[in-house]
Structures
1.
Amino acid sequence: MTEFKCIRCGHTKPVDDVYVCSCGGLYEVHHSFGDISLDLFDGKLRDIGSQWSSGVWRYKELIHPELDAKYIISRPEGNTNLYKRQKVAEYAGIQGLFLKHEGENPSGSFKDRGMTVGVSVAVSIGALKVACASTGNTSASMAAYAAQAGLQGIVFIPEGMIAYGKLAQALAYGAQVVQIKGNFDDAMDLIKKGAKRLGFYILNSINPWRIEGQKSIIFEMLQQRKWNPPDWIIVPAGNLGNTSAFGKALRELKELGLIDKMPRIASIQAEGANPFYNLWKSEEKKIKPMKPDTIATAIKIGNPVSWEKALRSIRETNGIVEQVSDNAIMDAKAVIDASGVGCEPASAASVAGAKKLREKGVIAGDEEAVCVLTGNLMKDSDTTVKYHLGGLENIDARRRNKPVQVEPDLSKIENILLTMGSSPTLEVKTLGV
Ligand code: F0G
């Protein structure tokens, strides 16, 4: 039987829409799995075009075994590539570095994995209105899935603090956009307080079903590696839904005997939005909220909802929490972008974190690491263009690709091309699905 279990006091109850226990701990989905073999998921790879070819619903038995398939709202999502790029590996100093590109999901971020599950559950219980607070990607994803399901979507976003690509999506997909004169944490507070009064179903990652869907990043990445776990999984960290989901996925696979080795999770925060890093470094028992500030707006979060679940993930996987500067994030982004893969700023925290942990000797040069790229390059094209034009305050744009202005004159263009450096080396190594 599937039920909710409080991660702090262990209290269990039937699944409902109250996500915080009276003790203050968060509930998570607790499954009683039967016998599950990896052949089940490998067999489904042949089901091209069916519901089970979604990179989330392929693993339904590990995510929501009891949901009636008629309620599933799927694009489909997932099936994102696992890349190997020599330049990125060299930059981080880790030869066995891979990039799991979650920006290749339908709405351009990993959020679609949790959202397909959250919206399907909303439909199954007859919800009419769904809502979330967001730094942008959750709102884009929720707006898309709500539109598909015929639900009314309401998104609370911090005014002036989300990238245009994301705002464009929420508006275009038809959600009601509420711009809060405050930051993400203020918006999240309103969502938690307002759900009952305003009658909406919450689709932030405080909703345990979102976490269940996000576990599929791990399942799919492992399946792409023939179920051979890497040494490290490195992930950008904001509201801490992914860190929580990754630990839960690995714990469940280990308990089911489906993996032998536990990869270590490295959760990477921006220096200016680092409450989880501070908690990890200190003797404190509780997260200390802060006023966040980082160029990576997706992870500009000072009071992460899932810190307690995430802390358990780090402890259970012998993991680590690290912080990186905005300069390191933008540098790593420029390298990922120039490798032809590309990502939004927050995503690059994973590679910046990998590099820092390698330099500190925490990650060995011969270890394998999968860095999760959480969002697409096109989400925040403003920041990318400003970086290359040299217009970002406090950022030392060391890897600028500066455009040149020239009259429409072929010989002048010829001169410019002659002064350019040698042609880039060919990138040939790709490991796709
Ligand atoms: N990367 C991107 C691109 C994100 O959009 C987010 C979170 C994260 C990383 C952090 O992930 O919260 O699981 O630790 N974005 C949320 C949003 C908060 O509203 O779109 P996390």
Note: The chain has 16 helices and 13 strands.
2.
Amino acid sequence: MAVVLKTAEELERMRIAGRLAAEVLDFITAYVKPGVTTGKLNDLCHDYMVNQQGTVPAPLNYAPPGYKPYPKSICTSVNHQVCHGVPGDRVLKPGDILNIDITVIKDGFHGDSSRMYYVGEPSIQARRLVDVTYECMWRGIRVVRPGARLGDIGAAIQAHAEAHGFSVVREFCGHGIGRRFHEEPQVLHYGKAGTGLALQPGMTFTVEPMINAGKPAIRELADGWTIVTKDHSLSAQWEHTVAVSEGGYEVLTHSRGTPPPAS
Ligand code: MF3
Ligand code: CO
Ligand code: CO
């Protein structure tokens, strides 16, 4: 299926879904502390989405081809977990780093965003990885404008990650998003500038680089979802949903608590 361009009215609904996804990340921030379980964070977010926001948690029972239905409402990926970490009875401890990935459906449209959280004080290496990954996401977002190519996004992200001695996960990518959770195009976080699809106003997609402190290789755990680094090195990820606008880009997953853009 081809890339879906959103109308002005659809973009308005994407803005609402995007803000609501970001507001779940705001809401959960105060609960990320030593001693809490990832399952408790899931339950708090689920309740907030369903009962406070009137949104549908898109991950719950999500089953793309080849996967069993995802059993929870959010993804919580700790330390060497790269993405799709399934919440459960794991207790967070000081020094852990955690990605929380939220996707809501509101009025037929999806908003998808993730942030990194520190449990207590992070190590110097962990902080550096999280900061570099944030800058990677922003370097990818900042090249978005009509006429830019998808390869420009990947190249900007890859260059920054590798300049810091980190590596880009290849198996997962950003994605078009709208009425469906994952639409075309695939937004790779590595690649060659000047190649790939030319961006047009009305496209909506995510930029969500997964950056490893060590080697890029990953593997899937027996739960069929959780992805970890093969070498057990730390991994970080940040995600925004963006729209291509006439003048460049618009970040759709913005809320009061969204961290300021990387400088
Ligand atoms: N939110 C993830 C993404 O950014 C997808 C999670 S799929 C799930 O694309 F089923 F694990 F929730
Ligand atoms: Co996404
Ligand atoms: Co996501």
Note: Residues 112, 175, 206, 208, 239 surround cobalt (II) ion (ligand 2) (CB under 6 Å).
3.
Amino acid sequence: MHSSPSCRLRPSSTNTWRLDLANAKIKRIAILGATGSIGQSTIDVVLRHPDRFKVETLTANTNAHQLAVLCEVLSPSTVCMADGEAAAQLSRLLEKKGIRAEVLTGEEGLIACATHPSVDSVMAAIVGAAGLKSTLAACQAGKTVLLANKEALVMSGALLIEAIQQGGATLLPIDSEHNAIFQCLAPHTRADLRSKGVRRIILTASGGPFRTRARDSLARVTPDEACAHPKWVMGRKISVDSATMMNKGLEIIEAHWLFGAPREQIEVVIHPQSVVHSMVEYVDGSVIAQLGNPDMRTPIAHALAFPDRIESGVESLNLPAIGGLNFEKPDTNQFPAIRLAYEALQAGGTAPIVLNAANEMAVASFLSGKLPFLAITQVIENVLQGSAPEPVSGIEHVLAVDSMARELAAIAIQRACERR
Ligand code: NAD
Ligand code: MG
């Protein structure tokens, strides 16, 4: 764990108090996925605390213009555009503006930004399997990893946890539910939950935009309708995941790896107000919850400053204005994704890799207007049924299973589109 960046007051030899500048350390941050929703919220928090944080590296996929603007504001030493043409474009833009930053590209560039020797904390906020290698590299390099990229953990939980232990890294959850659980559990994280008296982890879920709609009525929903989340503003992939509730499915598996919790100890409850971000129940009947307005700057600020607390720009919670907090059991007929995720976790081995790959393919096809909404979970179920789970042998195996599942998903999507 890195020392807190705040200046501490220490008694001097003359017995007066002075600033201990030797202990003052600015945290140097890598933001992987800087142009995305989490990336932008991270930059918002970082800019509020120039005395604590300095952005060292930034990465994005294709939006060179947006990254050029971020370079102007944040003056990183190194940046990466995953896409080669976008990297060339960024180099030209930076030269025109007279901004000096090393421009890298491709997977190696992402890894170089994640493992840069000056970087203390890595915000892992690339969406999907594309973030796996850079997140893993940050863990192996012993960084403090602020994990938003839940897909990486779903695909390769055992490998990431092993890399964290071997690399001496610190993992801090950014997903609001897991950050809430972390706060309710601390300081017992990843200890044996039973010996610490934990009975259950209760993940809350808003239920997404279609919570109260009859399943039949969802056949023709458009990508824009699915992305119009009632409580959170997020990237399009995770917004669709919230609409199908696969987001909660992925979060069940994420909780399993983050907290070492068995399947039976992880429950989901629908909570439409999205104020209680999750809960931990102890064996004495105590239930500890973390509450706050639905704004990702809270978990981001918590993890950036951990173990300190810093201002995040999030408004105070106005409970009288909210009025009431409601909780319901999830309907797994309406939302089969939760059942599929529990089944994949139970099957273990490569099953969660297949679940994630099929989901990424189906969501991309839905977002491009091809696959109907209700077919997303049908495609995932077909692909899971067509691939027998096996033990995971290493990262190359994870990537091979990911490719195989994407091929199976492409076939299942093609069939579903033909039936349309
Ligand atoms: P987003 O789509 O808004 O941003 C994704 C970022 O990843 C962008 O910067 C994009 O340039 C980059 N990217 C996409 N494809 C890439 C590729 N092939 N190579 C390199 N970079 C690539 O997504 P988001 O909503 O910010 O979500 C990011 C991650 O955080 C996801 O894993 C999501 O599940 C998780 N998360 C998001 C939220 C939220 O509120 N947005 C909450 C919890 C967890
Ligand atoms: Mg979440």
Note: Residues 127 and 149 are 6 Å apart (CA to CA).
4.
Amino acid sequence: MARLRTVYNCGDCGAMHYKWAGKCDSCGAWNTLVEDVEDPNSHTTLAAGMALIPPGEAQPIGKLDASVGQPLSTGISELDRVLDGGLVPGSVTLLGGEPGIGKSTLLLQLLASWPTRSLYVTAEESAQQVRLRAERLHAVRDNLWLVSEPSLTNIVAALDKVKPELLVIDSIQAVADPALGSAPGSVVQVRGCAHRLVQEAKRRNIPTILVGHVTKDGGLAGPRVLEHVVDTVLSFEGERHHALRILRAVKHRFGSTNELGLFEMTELGLVGVPDASQMFLADRRPGTPGSVVVPTLEGQRPLLVEVQALTNAMSGNAPPRRSAQGLDPGRLAMLLAVLERRAGISLSQHEVFASVVGGVRLSEPGSDLGLCIALVSAVTNKPAPSDLVVCGEVGLGGEIRHVGHMSRRLTEAARLGFTKAIVPTHSQSGAANKAPAGLTVQTASTLSEALDLAQLSIKK
Ligand code: TYD
Ligand code: MG
């Protein structure tokens, strides 16, 4: 057997270096090289693994059987929504998320609702711990098999014995192949084990889910190469202090990545939230200055969220504080500049706090106008009408720009009892005619016009 050599792998991109350096040559990241031992089989594992998969045969595309590879429902409707139907046999899904967000809980619930035999490999917790949690979640089923095992060899042996039709590995960073020599969680191990599990999934034609930890900045820990070898990458997000959890597809080979799943963490595990708008608006106090409801779109899903602003006049020369929660701070700074130059509303001597309620992140520019109105409402201490929703992108010239899928947003607003909407002139030429019942739609082409419509204009 070849002697093991010390190498340095980049924790970000997985590139291997024979000498330590402060910067990875391959991806340019700093301080990411970690000591490791060279993968003795690096040149042979792939080839050996390929032999596991039957040889491919070229055929005219029309002759291929489209029914193979149809997704199987997971039994959890919010998860099916994100996966565009369910899990495809032979596919590998990577589920990433911060510790404690609920990955193990979600997967245990999935395993319990899976109709055929499934295997849960826990490489981090003891079997007893998982059993206790399963009891609390009412997830103890005859079909659900459990093994607490970090060794890849033993995991493959368990697969041979149990012959499951769904495999979950919690987590890929805790699994190690004894043949590889380096420590669990190292780039060599994570990459090697993931490759092997992908091959096993394809060979056995079973859907496989790998749990992946994320780093402080939200990226998946371990080599980025993991994202390339799997078919689907899901990200489970949420604020730790909120019960809301959002599941998104970052990559999905079998469908769109537009859908979003919403869950609430409860005593009995994760519960799907089919009516998210209602949940977000439940604690709203209409009539408070600085609060505006925005009909936003997350993927294909309309969501009504409350945007809040608070301003405080400051004296002195220190630059006043700006804080943006659930919003891009750069966008907030831009909108403050536009308000000053195009609408004559200066907040340069005010502290500004802006936030989106409920642990949601608003990234679409369609929320610009709502934020501007919330800011003006806060600084003038005048509430915006409580039955109003506002949607529009704000340009640098103070113009209100087009936003897509307006009718879907307005229908959601009408469903929740809102009666007024301010939207861009061009989103809805004709939308005023097609406005959903009960909703009066007004259009604005500039920020000043929109402020007039919201009864917030400042007389100069
Ligand atoms: P967990 O699934 O262990 O997170 P991860 O696998 O992503 O690290 O979830 C941990 C948190 O979820 C824990 O802080 C407790 C909470 N929780 C509930 O609130 N209700 C429940 O029914 C369960 C099982 C967990
Ligand atoms: Mg866990």
Note: The first strand starts at residue 6 and ends at 10.
